[in-house]
Amino acid sequence: MNSVFKSETDQKLGLLICGHGSRNRIAVKEFADLVDSIRDRLPEVHVEYGYLEFARPTLRDGLDALRKQSVQRVIAIPAMLFAAAHAKNDIPSVLNTYSSKTGLIIDYGRELGVDRQMIAAAGYRLKAALDKSPSEMTPSQTMLAVVGRGSSDPDANANVSKITRMLTEAFGFGWGETLYSGVTFPLVEPGLRHLVRLGFRRILVLPYFLFSGVLVSRIRQHTERVAQDNPTIEFVDVDYLGAHSLVVDTFIDRIDEVINGQAAMNCALCKYREQVLGFETEVGAPQLSHHHHVEGIAESCSLCAEECTGACQVEDAPSLNNSTHHDHHHSHNHYPYPNSDHPLGPTTLKH
Q1: Nearest C-alpha neighbor of 150 from the set 92, 109, 209
Q2: What are the pLDDT digits (tens) for 298-339?
Q3: Residue 153: is its pLDDT beyond 80?
Q4: Beta strand pairing status for 175-180 and 234-237?
Q5: Peptide bond preceding 186: is omega within 30 degrees of 0, i.e. cis?
Q6: Beta bridge pairs of residue 147
Q7: What domains sit in the chain, N to C, each tagged with a CATH number?
Q8: What does the alpha-carbon distance between residue 178 and residue 163 come to, in Å, rounded to a whole number?
Q9: What whole-number distance in Å separates Cα of residue 256 and Cα of residue 315?
Q10: Cis peptide before 78, with omega less than 30 degrees from 0?
């Protein structure tokens, strides 16, 4: 870690880890545990965290806690795998509003992104799954399906595909494909039904997620549904990333980038700032958070003791294949997603 943390101004520096939030208490606990791991690595820094929605503390709560500790400068790091609307618009909107009202200096870092350490963490999860597999098939006889969260931002979706390719080449898998849990295409179930036609006898399904929650549960459910219809194929569930030490290392690197003035997001493919093919109408969209109506709502799930089962969500969801990228079903007033009518994707962003 950079020596600036050991300067005379230590006690004025604070760190805010910015999460999305979840109704699922296991996901919330996993996030808090991750922050504790970061605290352990940075004992000389005041570390707090906050969520956009569905859990407490909120981002404002976290910032208030830092101010009470006489912090004068905050480094805010989005706990997001890739930069889509949450990292590009929603979180900055909350931080900028808070800064303008209080005068607190907030420096914003970048998302975890496509990073060698994140890829290595996913590799550990894949290796553990392969070690447990009863099959003696080689990697070249195995297909990898990486499932991303899914976004209306093509830049974020494309980065999941890059992770898939890096992992496919690292292990020498026979084939690698990228699927998504919602918003974009192809979704998990229709995607897997296409993939089984390629003839591989083993398919690894890796949820490229930081934490548990209803979306990981849906990935498991969709995989099981396809597996039941294809009993001759071995479907292997791979663990999500979690608070792997390499994930924590990546957070530390993002903090270090801010300290050294090296934090830079990929604005060349940002649909809000450049005319990305197919999304030209969204250039210059206002930087507004769409989560104010559910900020701080902490209705925790009481059904899940371990990884989310999804039992608390199924009754409310008319179709798992049309689920949104949130644990709820309401409009955030986003621009209409141009691919909302795609046959392998959901229609939840069409208004």
Answers
A1: 209
A2: 555 544 545 555 555 433 333 334 444 444 434 444 566 666
A3: yes
A4: unpaired
A5: yes
A6: 179, 207
A7: 11-113+245-269 (3.40.50.1400)
A8: 9
A9: 44
A10: no
